[in-house]
Amino acid sequence: MVEQQIWQYAPVLILLLVALGLIGGMLAASAALGPRGRRPPIKDSAYECGMLPVQPGGGRFAVKFHRVAMLFILFDIAVVFLYPWAVVYREMLAGQAPAVLGGVLVFVGVLLVGYLHAVRKGAFDWRG
């Protein structure tokens, strides 16, 4: 019984071996066929546009950007939860129509209250 279950993992092991073989082959081909010799350090610098970088590369973003981005992700993911409900809506209606509709109305209501609260607090205002 246990031996049969272990053999079910054979395709995964084969896939892992093929992936590792491809990785090793690509690294070996890159080392064998790639450029040889020393390159000047300027070639390996992060910016090769003719000017030396004078400031650190990581610029700062305003907190407003992150706040709007997080609110977008929050509401976007919440709306994604409506898709499974919409897919099986007809089958669920056959059994308990009021409970199904009530549940989704409560969900959308909570989303709407959260959205209205964010608007009232000015969370979507880029200037504030």
Count of folded domains: 2
Q: What characterizes the major β-sheet? A: none
What is the H/E string?
HHHHH
Distance between the termini: 65 Å
Task: Give structural notes.
The protein is an all-alpha fold. It has two domains: 2-36; 63-120. 67% of the residues lie in helices and 0% in strands. The chain is built from five helices and no strands. The termini are far apart.
Helix/strand layout:
Blueprint: H1 2-7, H2 10-33, H3 63-80, H4 82-87, H5 89-120
What is the compact description of this entry?
The chain is mostly helical and 128 residues long. Helix content is 67%, strand content 0%.
List key phrases describing it:
128 residues, mainly alpha, 2 domains, 5 helices
